[in-house]
Write a structure and sequence with these properties.
- It is a single chain.
- The protein is an alpha+beta fold.
- The protein has one domain: N-terminal domain of TfIIb (Single Sheet), CATH 2.20.25.
- The radius of gyration is 16 Å and the shape is elongated.
- 6% of the residues are buried.
Length: 93
């Protein structure tokens, strides 16, 4: 019998902290919290570079699971971002 695997879903509260940054807060599971800071910076060639730092706080027995779930969620977000921006008339540069 292998490890039990399950996906979690959670809602995040987003707060714009400046014209180029967002703060996010979420409660993922009981005793688990996520806090993130996302920043967009325009580079010299006119493209935008996004950076995101996420801090996960969780009980020791599930911290690895939560970290994997966060990495998966971020990868899916960034995979879907170009289409979401295009649907709003923003073209990747």
């Amino acid at each position: 019998m292998g490890p039990v695997r399950y996906r979690i879903r959670f809602r995040a509260r987003m707060l714009r902290t400046s014209p180029t940054s967002l703060e996010s807060q979420a409660r993922a599971l009981l005793g688990c919290r996520l806090r993130g800071i996302t920043r967009g910076v325009t580079s010299e060639d006119g493209s935008t570079v996004l950076t995101e730092n996420v801090v996960a706080t969780a009980p020791l027995p599930i911290v690895d699971h939560l970290a994997r779930q966060v990495r998966t969620a971020l990868a899916q977000t960034y995979q879907q971002l170009p289409a979401a921006l295009a649907s709003r008339g923003v073209t990747p540069g």
